[in-house]
Amino acid sequence: MGRGSAKPPGRPLSDAVRMDGSGPWTWSANPGQSVYNETIRKGKHGEWRRWDPRRSKVASGLLRTTGAPERLLPSPGEHVLYLGAGHGTTVSHIHDVVCHDGAPGRVVAVDLSPRCLRDLTRLSRARPGLVPVLGDARRPEGWRALLPRRATWVFQDVAQAHQASIFTSACERFLAPKGRGLLSLKVESDRGSDAGALRAKVERELAEADFALEEVINLEGFEDKHLLFVVGGPPSA
Ligand SMILES: C[S@@+](CC[C@H](N)C(=O)[O-])C[C@H]1O[C@@H](n2cnc3c(N)ncnc32)[C@H](O)[C@@H]1O
Hints:
Elements lengths: L10 E2 L4 E4 L2 E5 L12 E4 L2 E5 L6 H8 L14 E5 L5 H10 L7 E6 L2 H12 L4 E5 L16 E6 L6 H12 E12 L8 H14 L4 E6 L7 E7 L5
Parallel strand pairs: 6-7, 6-9, 7-8, 9-10
Antiparallel strand pairs: 1-2, 2-3, 3-5, 4-5, 10-12, 11-12
């Protein structure tokens, strides 16, 4: 690995991400600073940050997927869109990946909540390439200028009604043809639906919009009543 004297955790998924039995780790793009009190493993030239699968649907998806976990992640240097950024827990790990070793990646991180934006803005000061946006996933007119080209990776975690149609329309507008979209679906956020009916409805909506559904990952045990839908980019963009 060439990452100093301490033994790196687990096995590599890429230069930026490793995986052990407890979950993934990312090579920090901002060593010396923890974001949510996560476990840090130091090396001579930097450090690995444990990515807590109980605090991140992307991390739990990496553990639960039946396919190659690395395909669920963007690569260094890519431009990605994150809708429902919260306080930056998962965003910080995605930033570690796309800005790995100084790569010119960009994470456009959108959230409705001013309190979340305060934390995201603080995070972005030490993490060039992280672009915090106070905005509404349903109203891209307010923030689309910050994403000058299509994103290779779109993740949505807004936990509100009509999650699937918000995601479908964001991917139609912003996901690159060979990109990948991940929708974290909170079953309780769409009232009147049980898990089976909601899953079928989302699958129908994605098919109608011509997205290839690759996998639906059940996050039960990490995030109850959450499904993670994984789709390929739009056929034409
Ligand atoms: C479950 S939290 C996100 C947690 C975050 N993804 C993480 O892993 O750390 C959901 C977030 O979605 C935001 N949200 C809800 N509706 C939204 C919308 N229409 N546009 C943007 N953000 C929204 C909320 O303010 C909240 O911060």
